[in-house]
Design the sequence.
């Protein structure tokens, strides 16, 4: 029997590979262009849009349309709730890694 | 523009929350009972079976049926390929966390 396993604290909304990447990149800036996100993560338009919708519905990201000069731009930013969710995800992953490393350092008897 | 983002190295077969938990628990022992895995991760029979099938198909885990005395038992163990896949996943997560922590330590100018 173990205490709550670190992976039980993972939330699929944040943990899913692409969305984890999106939130991590968003956390690096105050706001990020749609095209930058796409390139940073190697995503198609449709794939990025779909995952952004999921993150918006969860309240973790916000998409804003605007202009830079005359060029239409789509900006994305992470919300406070998104920052908290990302921090919680990374904390759970840290615990997972620590547990794995502890096992590698010294195997249990038997 | 960034180099290959850490989340691009994640493989859904291993990264998926439940399967990541299964592989992590399996990595802690030479073989683990089905019921132990279930309890350690808070999974139903069906859910665990389904994810074990995915891991078996990928060659990352093996399920063996046998007896302990007269009691039928199902044992699960991680394969070498599974160990490598788990190590690769955790390395990618480590890079993700390091990058996040570096950002938190000192924001870039502007």
Sequence:
């Amino acid at each position: 029997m173990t205490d709550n396993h670190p992976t039980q604290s993972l939330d699929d909304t944040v943990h899913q590979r692409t969305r984890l990447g999106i939130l991590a990149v968003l956390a690096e800036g105050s706001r990020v262009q749609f095209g930058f996100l796409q390139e940073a993560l190697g995503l198609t338009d449709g794939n990025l849009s779909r995952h952004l919708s999921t993150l918006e519905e969860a309240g973790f990201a916000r998409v804003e349309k605007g202009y830079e000069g005359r060029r239409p731009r789509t900006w994305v930013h992470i919300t406070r709730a998104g920052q908290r969710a990302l921090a919680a995800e990374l904390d759970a992953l840290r615990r997972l890694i620590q547990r794995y490393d502890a096992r590698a350092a010294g195997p249990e008897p038997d």
Q: What stands out?
A: The longest strand of chain A covers residues 61-68. The domain at 6-98 of chain A is CATH 1.10.10.10 (Arc Repressor Mutant, subunit A).
